[in-house]
Design brief:
Blueprint (H helix, E strand, L loop, with lengths): L1 H5 L6 H8 L10 H14 L3 E4 L2 E4 L2 H14 L1 H12 L2 E2 L8 E2 L6 H10 L3 H14 L1 H13 L6 H17 L1
Antiparallel strand pairs: 1-2, 3-4
Helix pairs in contact: 2-3, 4-5, 4-6, 7-8, 7-9, 8-9
């Protein structure tokens, strides 16, 4: 549900749940009763509140965490998210070195993904590349992760500091 909502699915939570669980409804249970049951499940989850005829997560960070877990659990989604985060380099104009640009994701969603990705070596290598070659934006990203305790790899942090020192000495 969190991932569907994060990806812009505007259907009510009850409709999404009914679609996903359509095969679970016993034949003898009428649709109306099944829908009541699903609404009760959503109400009692402790993660959602009913608002304007739909259900919303009680806090965005809960939705971000659950969406990140769903991404990590699906190898295809995980690879796509990893590539979107680490391989978004753009060249602002011809002749200028490409710079790293982070996706327009929620702050907490990005941090949950970073903490949950299972391949720590690949993640550290990609962060080191962003720190070394991603300019001030890359350094800010990496050092904010370090400040949050998500990045603990000293080589990655040192790469960010070295980039900051290099930028400062050429300004």
């Amino acid at each position: 549900l969190a991932l569907a909502k994060r990806n812009g699915d505007a259907r009510p939570a009850e409709d999404l749940l009914a679609t996903w669980e359509s095969g679970a409804r016993p034949a003898r249970i009428p649709e109306r009763k099944w829908r009541e049951f699903l609404r009760d499940l959503l109400r009692r989850s402790g993660l959602l509140t009913e608002w304007l005829g739909d259900f919303r997560f009680t806090h965005d960070s809960i939705a971000d965490y659950l969406a990140a877990r769903a991404v990590i659990a699906d190898e295809g989604l995980s690879v796509t998210a990893f590539e979107e985060l680490f391989y978004r380099w753009h060249r602002p104009w011809p002749g200028v070195e490409p710079t790293w640009r982070p996706p327009n994701w929620q702050y907490s969603y990005t941090r949950f993904l970073m903490a949950l990705w299972p391949d720590k070596t690949r993640t550290a290598d990609s962060l080191r590349h962003v720190a070394r070659d991603g300019g001030l934006t890359g350094c800010d990203f990496v050092l904010s992760l370090a400040e949050d305790g998500i990045v603990v790899n000293q080589d990655v942090i040192e790469a960010a500091w070295a980039t900051l020192a290099r930028v400062a000495s050429t300004s």
